[in-house]
Structures are given as structure tokens and as C-alpha cells.
Automatic annotation (TrEMBL):
Pathway annotation from the record: Amino-acid degradation; 4-aminobutanoate degradation
Transmembrane region(s): none
Xref: InterPro entries: 4NH2But_aminotransferase_bac, Aminotrans_3, Aminotrans_3_PPA_site, Class-III_PLP-dep_AT, PyrdxlP-dep_Trfase, PyrdxlP-dep_Trfase_major, PyrdxlP-dep_Trfase_small
UniProt catalytic activity: 4-aminobutanoate + 2-oxoglutarate = succinate semialdehyde + L-glutamate; (S)-3-amino-2-methylpropanoate + 2-oxoglutarate = 2-methyl-3-oxopropanoate + L-glutamate
Classification via Pfam families: Aminotran_3 (PF00202)
Protein name: (S)-3-amino-2-methylpropionate transaminase
Organism: Herbiconiux sp. A18JL235
Length: 453
């Protein structure tokens, strides 16, 4: 690592600091420039322009330092500008930045595939295709499952989110803002009820029976190529299914020749204190999708599946210009190597303990906190209207927006989630200290106090 890089990393103290209005004047100026050249369809949750970042802190152009509880939606899982990732990517940049794996291959791609084979659930021969984004991983998984099964149907669950490409728009639960006006959409996508214990009160077995009965009736198992499931739903609001739900669905898929695809794009790569969230549920999917946290911030995604399924695609049928780019692959190898030390997993468990304890205090004081849920560094609270926690659990998106806005003004970047926008989600990097978590929780407590709830 160069001296300059070292100095750059050290120049981001791990503390919250607000020195201007939010957004500050330089961000406002950049926002004006942006509005002239970037369409509003690409929106930003908080229009402060980030200049540098390290660990769990992002610094904007006006010198404000935010505690980042979103990590770019679960991407910088091992921390912003992680030294090993930066060093690996920098070295790779100097060696080779691109050849196109489908023209002349390179070792880094193969190594990432080996690491994914080793660390995804299941002790069987696996193959991996690397692509650029989560949505592209979903598209490829569906494509491969269709080729393998010679069937067309794609089953998804309520509250799912899978991306913004044409097929994935059709797979998402929420139309607005992801799909509104962007049709026609891909056909043969069937949406079944999920397991959402806080709302449906069903056991895993009951919820699975409901999902299966729905799909049997509305499509028929023999027409389904795959079932695509987020083991813990991300954009849907960190919905953790009831125990036994996922294995029961998988059993049904296996019996019916349906490929079970786990979309672990948000929940994978140590986010939940396991390599993949499937492990918490005793689930061994046929295909696992990874993206976000895999390369420490560089664009990379993987489709890893049983060899016999993955091998169904004909030579030339998979790939793309940038898929498995050497720099992104080198960064991913550095991420895997660090996670292999086991520290990241312990950190995820520590983060869960601190967050849940802090959020429980809020729940004890405010009846709008309907449920605290999640695993590892993937924790959320669902907010409901006052007085409805024991009855209708009516969504309280206004409170979520107010808390997010207050937190931003006070140097905490917090994300919302949920079909009804009434979930606060916490997905900090594993590098965050207890001190920063406590500091962020204190700001969130102030935000709740301001609600007058
Ligand atoms: N699946 C899940 C579970 C996701 O959380 C996301 C991104 N939020 C995607 C797919 C799409 O990934 P990308 O934005 O990289 O296309």
C-alpha cells in the first residue's frame, strides 16, 4: 500500500461530525449540477455528495461525517475502503483490468468461483457464473433454471425484491416506484404468499402449505422452472420467515423438479453472521445468488449452483463484457480471505446484540415499535400506528420518514424498507464499533422523542 493511500484512510476518523446544514452548500451546488444532467428516475435518499469514506464513516464534500448504517445497502459489509480490498484492487489494476473472460480467461475469476463453491451451502459439485449486478444474477439464474427444467414458470413471493431489469421488475412485489409505467413486463411470473410471522401468525409448516397450495392451484408444479426466494427479505423489510418454512418449500421443489434459487444478494456474504443466511434455516438451495457484499464495493455478482443445473446452459449462452471483471474479482478474493478469519462473523453477532438491546429500549417506551427482527448485522424495526400494535398493526411510514430525516440531520445515515415504507433497517458494515452503534442509537432515540409518540 502506498503512503498516500495510508494517509487517505487515516484521514477519516471514526466519529460523527456535522459542520454545516444538511445538505451543505457544496452538496447543494452539486445537486444543482446533477439535476441538469441526471434524470429524476435515479433518485438519492439523501443528496449529500460523498467525497471519502472509511470503515463505518462517510464524509461529504462539506466535511460532514455520517455514521453509515446502510453500507450502500449492504455492500461495504467489511467496511468502506477496507485496506486489504483497496490494496488487492490497486494491484490488480496495474496487472490487468480487462480481457473479457469469454475471450481470454484469468485466474481471479476461477478463484472467486472456487471460493463460492466452498462457502455457499451444500457439499456437492458447484459451478459459478460471474456477472455485474444483482438483477443480472437473478436473470441468469432464471435463464439457467428454465434451460435445465425445460419449463417456463417462475415463482416468487410477496414482498420480494429482485431488481430493475425487465424480468426482475415483473418479479418484484412493489409496482411503485420500480415498475410503474415501464411495461410490458415478462410473463410466466407467479407471486405466492410468503411467511411473515408478525402479520400472518402462521408456523413455518402452515405458511409453506399455503405457499405451495397457492402455486399448485395458480400454476401447477409441473410448469414451474424455479422458485426464487430471499431467505431474509431485504427491501421487503428484513422479513425473517417462520422456522421450517424454507426447508419445507425446498423439499416440495425437490420433489417436483423445481429449482430452488436463494436470492442472497442482500443477506449473503457474512451479513447475518453466517456466510449465507440460508444456513440459519438449515436450507441448502440448488442455486445461490450473491452480489452486494461480495467485492467490498466493486461491482460483482455470482450465480452459484449445482453442477448439473448450471451445466445445462450451452457454451456461449452465459457471460457478458464486464462479468467477473479482474479488479472486482481481486477485491472479492480479499473479502473472502478476511471473512475466512472468522472475525466478521463474530462482528455480525456483536452488532445484532448491541442493536437489538438498544432497539428493545425503544420498543419498551414507544408502542409504535411493532416488531424488532433480523439476524446478525441485518436488523430492522417495523413501525405501526399508535395503539395498533396489538390489533391491525397499521403501517406507520410517517414515523419512519421522520426518524430517517432527523437521523440524517444529526449525522446518521439510516435506511427505510418495507412494502409500506414502515420499516427502519440497520445494515452497518461489520467494521462498525460498539461506540459508533451506541452513538447512532442515541440519535435515533432523540428522533423518537421528537415524534411525540
Ligand atoms: N435481490 C435482492 C435481494 C436485492 O436486495 C437487490 C438489490 N437491492 C437485488 C436483487 C438487485 O441487485 P442490483 O441492484 O445489484 O441489481
Amino acid at each position: 500500500m502506498t503512503d498516500t493511500l495510508d494517509a487517505q484512510l487515516l484521514s477519516v476518523p471514526q466519529e460523527r461530525k456535522i459542520v454545516t446544514a444538511i445538505p451543505g452548500p457544496k452538496s447543494e451546488e452539486l445537486q444543482r449540477r446533477r439535476l441538469a444532467v441526471v434524470p429524476p428516475g435515479v433518485s438519492s435518499a439523501l443528496p449529500v455528495y460523498i467525497q471519502k469514506a472509511h470503515g463505518a464513516i462517510i464524509v461529504d464534500v462539506d466535511g460532514n461525517q455520517f455514521i453509515d448504517l446502510g453500507a450502500g445497502i449492504g455492500v461495504t459489509t467489511i467496511g468502506h475502503t477496507d485496506a486489504a480490498v483497496v490494496a488487492a484492487a490497486a494491484e490488480q489494476l496495474g496487472d490487468v483490468t480487462h480481457t473479457l473472460f469469454t475471450i481470454t480467461p484469468y485466474e481471479e475469476y476461477v478463484r472467486v468461483a472456487e471460493l463460492l463453491a466452498e462457502h455457499t451451502p451444500g457439499d456437492f459439485a458447484k459451478r459459478t457464473v460471474l456477472v455485474n449486478s444483482g438483477a443480472e444474477a437473478v436473470e441468469n439464474a432464471v435463464k439457467i433454471a428454465r434451460k435445465h427444467t425445460r419449463r417456463a414458470g417462475v415463482a416468487v413471493l410477496e414482498h420480494a425484491y429482485h431488481g430493475r431489469t425487465n424480468l426482475t421488475m415483473a418479479m418484484n412485489f412493489k409496482a411503485a416506484p420500480y415498475a410503474t409505467g415501464f411495461g410490458p413486463f415478462a410473463g410466466d411470473v407467479y407471486r405466492a404468499p410468503n411467511s411473515y410471522p408478525y402479520h400472518d401468525g402462521l408456523s413455518g409448516a402452515e405458511a409453506a402449505a399455503r405457499t405451495i397450495a397457492y402455486l399448485e392451484k395458480t400454476v401447477g408444479a409441473s410448469d414451474l422452472a424455479c422458485l426464487v426466494v430471499e431467505p431474509i427479505q431485504g427491501e421487503g423489510g428484513f422479513v425473517v420467515p417462520a422456522e421450517g418454512y424454507l426447508p419445507a418449500l425446498h423439499e416440495w421443489c425437490t420433489a417436483e423438479g423445481i429449482v430452488f434459487i436463494a436470492d442472497e444478494i442482500q443477506s449473503g456474504m457474512a451479513r447475518t453472521g453466517a456466510w449465507f443466511a440460508s444456513e440459519h434455516f438449515g436450507l441448502v438451495p440448488d442455486v445461490v445468488l450473491s452480489a452486494k457484499g461480495i467485492a467490498g464495493g466493486l461491482p460483482l455478482a455470482g450465480v452459484t449452483g449445482r453442477a448439473e443445473i448450471m451445466d445445462s446452459a450451452q457454451p456461449g449462452g452465459l457471460g457478458g463484457t464486464f462479468g467477473g471483471n479482474p479488479v472486482a474479482a481481486a477485491a472479492a478474493i480479499a473479502v473472502f480471505e478476511q471473512l475466512e478469519t472468522g472475525e466478521g462473523f463474530e462482528s455480525a453477532q456483536r452488532i445484532e446484540r448491541v442493536l437489538v438491546e438498544g432497539l428493545q429500549k425503544l420498543a419498551d417506551r414507544y408502542d409504535i415499535v411493532g416488531e424488532i427482527r433480523g439476524i446478525g448485522a441485518m436488523v430492522a424495526i417495523e413501525l405501526v400506528q399508535p395503539g395498533t400494535a396489538a390489533t391491525t398493526k397499521a403501517p406507520n411510514a410517517e414515523a419512519v420518514s421522520a426518524v430517517v430525516a432527523y437521523a440524517a440531520q444529526h449525522g446518521v445515515l439510516l435506511l427505510n424498507a418495507g412494502t409500506y415504507g414502515n420499516v427502519l433497517r440497520f445494515l452497518p458494515s461489520l467494521a462498525i464499533s460498539d461506540e459508533l452503534l451506541h452513538d447512532a442509537l442515541a440519535v435515533i432515540e432523540e428522533a423518537f422523542a421528537q415524534l411525540g409518540a
